[in-house]
Amino acid sequence: MTPTVALLIPCHNAEPWLRETLESALAQTWPAVELIVVDDGSTDGSLLLAHSYVPRGVRVISQAKAGASAARNRALRESRSDFVQFLDADDLISPDKIARQLALLAARPLGTVASCAWGRFTTEPSAARFVDTAVCRDFTPLDYLVLAGETGAMMHPSAWLVPRAVADQAGPWNEALSLNDDGEYFARVALASAGLAFCGDPGARSYYRSGLPGSLSQLRSDRARRSQFHSLELITRQVLAAEDSARTRRACAGYWQRYVHDFFPAPADLMTRAEAEVRRLGGSVGRPAMGPKSSALARLIGWRQVWRLKHLLHG
User: Fold this and answer.
1) Which helix or strand (DSSP H or E) is residue 85 part of?
2) What is the rounded distance in angstroms from the CA atom of residue 51 to the CA atom of residue 47?
3) Rounded Cα–Cα distance for residues 120 and 191 (Å)
4) How far apart are the two ends of the chain, measured CA to CA in Å?
5) Helix, strand, coil % (nearest 5) of the chain?
6) Domain spans in the chain, listed from the N-terminal domain onward
7) How far apart are CA 222 and CA 206, in angstroms?
8) pTM score of the predicted model
9) Between these two residues, 21 and 288, which has the higher pLDDT value?
10) Residue 105: what pLDDT?
11) Is 61 helix (H, G, I), strand (E, B) or coil?
12) Domain 5-212 is classified in which CATH homologous superfamily?
């Protein structure tokens, strides 16, 4: 019996990019595809555009704005397929992505989750930069989460192909989160899986549209920073529940140290708590990512002063 795959697309005010995303989904060479768009209270033409694809087999659900995680959960509840492919309304996947990953999973133990190479782009997917190659290999669930904690390496959400049984065991997306809701969700998916299999076939690719207007302001909002903090509380708890060891504590300390680097100097209460977590977990040797000029200045005045200057300059 041919496995079925649900492509689940949450959408909020994505009219400029939605058509390209839907064409990407409909171009899949795997025949048994269920495609669901959940419009999350869009105020632009997204819903009308999505409905224009109903004759081509796209199912469209409209709901009052509740957030991307709530839209993904609605799509997940409505779907009935054997595998789950999440795809944001501005991202793309290559035509053979699902077919190549399913071919890989056919030779792996039940409950294995597939990944693939992913790249960032803004307007042209042909110009995507595939740079986060540390994740381009097979992993045990904990090995992947340890690498993410120690290095900050990540797998783009649409790069995953998840067996429905694993998604059911992992549970729904956390609707209380905004920033890093995907990191927290896929940490649970990884831990619920039998392992993570990387599909190195060049026909399997995921394209992450980044650098869009508004993304930086959302990252700087108090809500986003508190969401990231809470997501790390949950990830740390999940990782240590699976294995409380020197390596997992070091990785969790890395998650928290990166939070301090990314969000310093505010909000102060979260900085204090995050730094306390780094100490509780044994400390971290992680350093903030900086360009050459900032790194040179940091050697003179310290990275905290550099970050304060950038915060004052950019608001």
Assistant:
1) strand 83-86
2) 6
3) 26
4) 56
5) 50, 15, 35
6) 5-212, 216-314
7) 30
8) 0.93
9) 21
10) 98
11) strand
12) Spore Coat Polysaccharide Biosynthesis Protein SpsA; Chain A (3.90.550.10)
